[in-house]
Amino acid sequence: MVMTATGVSDADGESTSFSPTMTSVSPTSTSVSPTSTTASTDSRGQQQLVVGRKTKNPGLETMEKRWNKIAGMQTDLLVTVNGTQFNVHKFPLYSKSDRLQEIAKDDPETGRTIADLGDLPGGDRVFVQVVNFCYGFDIDVSPYNVAALRCTAEVLHMHDESRSGMREGNLVPLSERALVNFFANWQDTVSILHHCQRLMPTASDCGLVDRCMTELCKFCLPSSAACATAAESSVPSRASLTSPRPSTPPVLGVHLRESVLSLELEFFAGLIAALRDAGMPAQDIGRSIDAYGRYWIPQIVGDDFLNIGKQRDIIETLVSLLPLREGDPGTIVDVFSKPAPVFRLLRAAVAYGADRNCQKQLVRMAGCMLHEADVDDLSNLEVHEVQAVSQVYFSLPTHNDDFSSAACKRVGRVIDEYLELTCSSISAAGSNPGTLSWETVQSLASAVPAEARASHNALFRALFLFLRLKKGAMAEKELVSLFEVVDPSKLSPELAEQATSHRALPPTFLARALVAQKEHMQSWIRELAEGTTLLLEERKRTDEEKLKISQEVEQLREEVRLADERLQQVRKNMREEALQVVKKHVVLKACVAELADQIQKLELERRILRERENGTREEGIQGRRQKKHYFFSCWWRQVRREDHNDNGTRQARSNDARPRNLALGDPPATGVGGGEGLSTTSSSHEQSAGESSEAGSGTRKAVRKAFKKLYHSDSSGSGDHIIAAAA
């Protein structure tokens, strides 16, 4: 992320207002060097304008021409920075820097004003950017040069927000706004802190170092659960210098990054102190110290002790940074969860000859964690150092004079394995056995309490290897004192037999080994006798159980025989019952067949009877219908006959009633007497004929209705009632 301070100037030197902006271009800066005469480009693509003290640099000359063009006049101030001279103007620089105005003085020989800045922080390259800033040119502010710009501005007293000169503002406020934005990213913050290492003591005097460490503490300390998901992408890559600073979420493991571990010792120590004051847990501080030690302290190989003084300072400083309480070495457990870092520091402290107090403190720390160590952690330590560590462990008040715990036995096994490894490595390398004395070996072997050793196999193998190294150079008294530590009763049978057969061992040890072997044999015999007794008792119990089992088997066999007999009887009964069932089944089957035949016969007879009944019923119905028809025919002829007679009677009556004169064709008389008598007679005959006709017609209708009703009634009755109805 690069910030560009922009100030636009015209050809007459007039400048517009200044406004800081952000660009994404890689940081570039123009610089000069007094040791070269050619232009070059550094690793970050920064153009370097180089000028010698006696030769002119074309780049610097071009830049001076630009300055002259902006100022509109020739230069009137000569500034010297690290031996490099710059021809500049008073007005742009005096308006921004109070320091230049204070140290500038007139040279009577040349008649010019000169100012010597000496070893300016950042050198001539940064001073070129400062001059460009004063003239109103654009300058790039990045994490690579912001520290140098800030320190240079501090030395030149460029604090005031001056509105005079060729641009507004000043370099200190500009660099401060840039720092606020860069501190939002932990990588930029670490980069600024790295550049401060070359700007001391100015960077410390202006508070930039403390500010960087304070900002790094904010990243290292997890203030919320969101620190686990915080990422570097959360920091914006573009922002205005005048915008408020974005939030800085914690990022786990910042204090373990290589960019932090590559800090110089003084800066790393200051960062650890700041982290401790900010409340970082002791284990995190311990991991950071261990990582820094592994980064700077090489592996101890042979006699490669380059930069011994620097390595010694690193070790002593790291040990002094451990957050331990005075007189309480147990707090080291809160710093390192594993003993490897402590033993690594102890090996380095011994190898590089660290201070005695430092080694003593490390020995005390290692002793507190010896129960968690293995033989690899002790492999590069001297025997007397391992002895000191073991003495610290067994003198801890937590044991309460009880060394039979599992932790103590583990420590005893590790020390015996270390002693065996040490003797075997000397034997394999063919080194001078005089480098390891029997007193040292005896002291280390005696440092472990007897209760802390469950087995003496590793210890015996180590002493036996040491004895072979000396090849008879030890006196008998020394051998006796050396092998007094070994308890033959805790050796395995194979090693005990080997010890009794080796004549180089001291006689007292052989006697103790034989006594121990005898006791072992007696114990074995007792165990064998006890085992034999137990076997006899077990055999007796087995015989009793066998007899009991045999009786139970016989009883079971008898029960099986009885059960078999009952089973045979049941099978016989079941067979007889099955035969009876079969016979009954055959009989029932025959009965069923006979019943089926009878049912068929009954069904046939029923069908015949039904057919006969249906035939008889049809014959009866036909007879009754014929009888009804006969009676109806008779009745109908009688009715027709009566109707015919009635019609004849009515005709005769009508003829008798007609007047004679009508019959002869004479018109009827209309007189009073004769006419009235004729009309009366005619009307009486007509009335009687109508009544007779109406009576006959009503009788016939009633007879037809009754006949129709009777004809359609139930056919089971006789036809006599028809005749009665007709009459």
TrEMBL record:
Residues 15-43, 678-698 have a biased composition (Low complexity). Pathway: Protein modification; protein ubiquitination. The keyword Coiled coil applies. It comes from the Eukaryota. Residues 645-659 have a biased composition (Basic and acidic residues). Residues 75-143 form the BTB domain. The keyword Amino-acid biosynthesis does not apply. Keywords: Coiled coil, Ubl conjugation pathway. PROSITE patterns: BTB, NPH3. Residues 1-55, 645-703 are annotated as: Disordered. This is BTB domain-containing protein.
